[in-house]
Amino acid sequence: MSKIIQYLDNQSDIKLLSYANLKKEDIRTTDLLFLMRGKASLTIDGKGYAMKADDFVVVNKHENYELLAEKESLLFSFSISSFLLSQALEVERISFYCNSIENPNKNYASLRQLVSEIIDLLIYENDKTNFLQMSKVYQLLNELSSLFLEQTMETFEEDQRIQKITRTIKERYYENLTLTEMSEMAHMDIAYFSKFFKKNMARNFKDYLSDVRMQHAMQDLIETEKPITQIAIDNGFFSVNGFNKKFKELYQSTPSSYRKKYQARKAVSTYLFNDEIKQSFQQYKEEKLEVISAHKSYYQFEINRAEKTPIRETWGKILNIGAAGIVLNNSLRQQLSMLQQNLTFKYGRIWGIFSAKLLGETFDQYDMIDEIIDSLIHLSLTPWLSLNKISHSFKESEYPKEKWQAMIQQFCLHLLNRYGTQTVSKWKIEIVANAPEDHDSVSRYCSFYQMTYAICKQLLPNISIGGGTFVMTNRLEVRSFINEELSDCTFDFYSFALFPYSNRLVREKRNYQRVTDPDFLKNQVQALKQIDTNKPIYISEWSNTVSRSNLLNDSLYKGAFIIKSLIDLFDQVDGLGYWLSTDLVQKGHYQGLLTGGNGLLSKNGLFKPAMHAMKLFDQLHGAYFQCKDEKHLVCSSEENEYFILGHHYTHPNSLYYLKDESNLKVTEISQFFEEVEHEEEIVLSNISNGTYELRIFSCLKDHGDLFNQWSKLNFLQELRDSDIKYLEAKSTHLQTLEVVEVRQNRLGINKKLVTNEFYVINIKKRR
């Protein structure tokens, strides 16, 4: 056992092994396994993995594993107790998804760097390095929770209640706590409390209380010389026999035997590194260690002046408007007009068409539907009609089969008569699947899809029909889902929804959890490449959150997220539909200028950073693609003009993921991001010599950041029209202009960046 871990928690353990044969003994620990050199076979709950050098895997608590590494391998193993994690996390409600074998595209460089630093400190351990060792271990835990934490989505009220209950248990575990007392404290009857507790904690009250007591008893057992009887009483076990029985169930040993084995192990100090391990680690550092410069980066992009490949303008394909009825709102139409003036979208996506409110009780009154569709066409938007999408607890597939057949047939005839075949054939009909991972739901969806497809195609043979806004999670096997479960359906296109949530089957129920992976969207789109099809693939909905009350939607971060995501995704699919058009179509619980809505525009029609990001990206309209990397996109035009789109995206830290995303405070947004300045040098080579105008359009704090400007007005909710106009004038991007000379066909640009800054550089040669 590592000496440093004794300072943090005696139930955790760090090991560095040259030949590992491990079997998980305590299902209450979370185990981080990093194979630094060699190969190993790993089995987690019966699923086998072949580990290779540099692989990272986290085995969550309640999961069993066995690992067998080949000789001359090097394995870093960190068993993290729930006691240690509970210092910062609600450990009962989180898990980690960190598996480089299943998810190789994720960036694990920061974890590798920290592990190497920890081992360095442990190998050359002395009394003066203990605080540094402790800080590095905590830093590793913070990095793990920042990038790989999956936290259960719960309602705020329920989350607060269960936190209060578990906090009380942790504070009073040594008392004679009873189910009756706890249920009274929570203002619930005993039966409901038991059900509520088990639903949220995955075990009953008695077992949870016993586990908390056992964690503290274990600390006393290995850290003190107290008699076993005293340890049991001090930690709430009022029967020594009961304590011994529970201990033996968990550790397959009596408390006294465990203490003797621990003391013997401690005396032997098996942790000490031998020369073979030290040499192996030194070789690893020389061969593999990534040296990361945190402050300055150098990028060189060579221009191919003969390249005439138009950029795929997927970012402007789909405008997600909202439920169809909202289009009748004059304020919304004004904002849609503003969006189209600044960003030319192709399709206007609406849903909730077949409601009694729009079609009347007889479902054959089309006046309002006509007004809605006419409004889209007037705005130069091609209708994208989304059917079966849940809107106000309504979806089309809930109608009786015969009624739906008559409704859709009559609707298609009306479209044909009013708009004509040539116009309607350009439209899209999308039939949404609301639960793609539920077999029974998919079966019902296929029947509904086939019926609707057949009726529409009979009357409108050239219209494009597809589906189904399939929600992409890291548990959906896309290829088998499309090729097998949907094999009986004919799709003219496929559409998917991308939001960073995972979907786990927990106790036979779907459990959606937030995913901390900054590259989740990019990695999920790579999975779409597995689909064997020549049909168009659209991401009809995408964002960083589904919450309509997440204040990060209003922050500078959201703009940087959009730029990063569009660079990652624009050339991978046939169209993208950012979620959502404007805050006007959503109702959240916040009041004031900004409400945490998903829109590009605020309720007042002001540009949020998300809108500025889309506008900067839209400068590439009509350009030719040159190249891209993770942070930049380079394009050119016909006449010696070049564009460099870039960002300094900063991922939210673990504090954000520990908060209820729909109940953030305006004053805490800045706490979710590390303020790190970055400098980059960009060189364009192979461009013609001459005089160029260099314009930089940037969004950063104080420029293009409406949320920051509102903060300077103390987040006042009741603002005058003059205040709104002031904020509109102040919330514009920063623009700089200089004239530069290009010699030797090279142009160098130095730019300093701050957290979540994003920009486009326009370089145009003077005639």
TrEMBL record:
Record keywords, A-Z: DNA-binding, Glycosidase, Hydrolase, Transcription, Transcription regulation
* GO molecular function terms attached to this record: DNA binding; hydrolase activity, acting on glycosyl bonds
Q: Which SUPFAM superfamilies match?
A: (Trans)glycosidases (SSF51445), Glycosyl hydrolase domain (SSF51011), Homeodomain-like (SSF46689), Regulatory protein AraC (SSF51215)
Q: Where is the HTH araC/xylS-type domain?
A: 163-261
Q: Does the keyword Disulfide bond apply?
A: no
Which domain of life does the UniProt lineage start with? Bacteria
Q: Kindly give the InterPro entries that the UniProt entry links to this protein.
A: GH, GH39_cat, Homeodomain-like_sf, HTH-like, HTH_AraC, HTH_AraC-typ_CS
Matches recorded under PANTHER family: ARAC-FAMILY TRANSCRIPTIONAL REGULATOR, HTH-TYPE TRANSCRIPTIONAL REGULATOR EXSA
Give the UniProt family note: Belongs to the glycosyl hydrolase 39 family.
What's the protein here called? Helix-turn-helix domain-containing protein
* UniProt source species: Enterococcus gallinarum
